[in-house]
Amino acid sequence: MKDLYDLIDFGLSNPEAWSENYVIATVVHTEGHAYRRAGARLVLKKGRKILGAVSGGSLEESIAADSDRMGPDSIARRVDYDSRSASDLIWGTATGCGSLVSVLLQRWDSPINKLCGWIKERLNARQPVLLATVINKDDQQLGRQIAMDTSGGIYSQIDSIPIRAGVISRTAELLSSSIGKPNRYQHRTCVAGRAELLLEYIPPATSLVIIGAGDDAQPLVEGAKRLGWSVTVIDHRPAYADRQRFPLADHVVLTQPDSYSDLVHPDPWTVAIVMTHNWRQDAAAVAALSQFELPYVGIIGNTARTKKILATLMARRGSRAKISASFHYPAGLDIGAHNPEEIALSVIAEILAVLSGRLGASLKDQERTSSKSSEVRLLALAGAERR
After folding, report:
1. Burial code of 82-107, b = ≥16 C-beta within 10 A, e = fewer?
2. Which of 99, 120, 208, 253 could in theory staple to 32 by disulfide, Cβ–Cβ 3.0 to 4.6 A?
3. What is the dihedral of CA 145, 147, 152, 158, to 10 degrees?
4. Cα–Cα distance between 231 and 233 in angstroms, integer?
5. Main-chain phi, psi angles of 193, to 5 degrees
């Protein structure tokens, strides 16, 4: 997702980008073991990478050469990079990945700049956007796009009324399927009329609220900003809630604990971490955050102490009170973290896992589980055939 956020910000900070011969490369389809999936983006100028990535580095050179071959009147083209055959190691991209990656090359034009502005306005208002891109190789509308927001607003570059109607129908379906996981980017390809489409559900950036501005909050801010998140740091101590200590944070707020709840604007894209390392301040933060249905609230500190804070909160609220399942303590995945940088990494990894509906297990273990499931299915099929 950061590729797309960066591309939008680049377009808005370079209003004349459309006249500078920039080319956007977007992965629109993959088969096999591709490093990046559909939706990954790269911006080039005269064969030089400006931002983004569409592979681990193996395809960028070929994409740069193909983008340079686009004539002045060529608005868009789709190129396939196929490394599934043995000859690719000699004559092709030599990635050895055994994959097919289809990339849409679009010349940056004025409508793209306008589209960036339209999407940015919605994301700033914490409103997700659905983006549909025509990706048929030989279609005259190749590269044309329609964007929709959840209130029904539409920005369209597509003239064909049947295609527009089909796109609107398909994007509505994608929006419906995103309700169960509104905080994660999703994509799919489909057909609307005669148009093949890449549909993308683009949520607002994750907003991380950090309550506690100690030294260990600094690497957490840095890591979150690398992912394109919006970060707010809150503390009641003037020496800690200092902008100079957190130059990358979007907001640094000095406030008293009884005002914590006023600074949280809950939505499906907002998460929080409590790390004041002080019993009273942590208790005030937990009480404030428990009022909201946030997808993730992490608490850093001793488990026994956190349980006591939660038990005290429940006792105050009565026997029917419940503590949200979104509380995670001690915060972070178990990676044996000891220093602030490692703890920050484990916390960010846990947040990503929770937002993705994952447990944060090793990919190696996941592949083992998948292999075992496949073996079980094959044995079951073999048994059925024998019967």
Report:
1. ebeeeebeeebbebebebebbbbbbb
2. 99
3. -10
4. 7
5. 65, -120
Q: Do 135 and 196 meet the contact criterion of CB atoms below 8 Å apart?
A: yes
State whether residue 259 is helix, strand or coil.
helix
Spatial neighbors of 379 by CB under 8 A, at least 6 apart, are: none
Among 106, 102, 101, 79, CA closest to 24 = 106
Tell me if the pTM is above 0.90.
no
Burial class (CB within 10 angstroms; exposed 0-12, middle 13-18, buried 19+) of 239: exposed
Q: Is the domain defined by 207-355 classed in CATH 3.40.50.720?
A: yes
> How confident is the model over 173-203, as pLDDT tens digits?
776 666 666 678 888 888 877 788 899 999 9
Residues 163-176 have a mean pLDDT of 74
The pair of structure tokens assigned to 253 is: 């707020």
Domain segments of the chain as ranges: 1-108, 110-204, 207-355
- For residue 15, is pLDDT > 80? no
Q: Which of 2, 18, 228 is nearest to 114 (CA)?
A: 18
Cα–Cα distance between 299 and 286 in angstroms, integer? 8
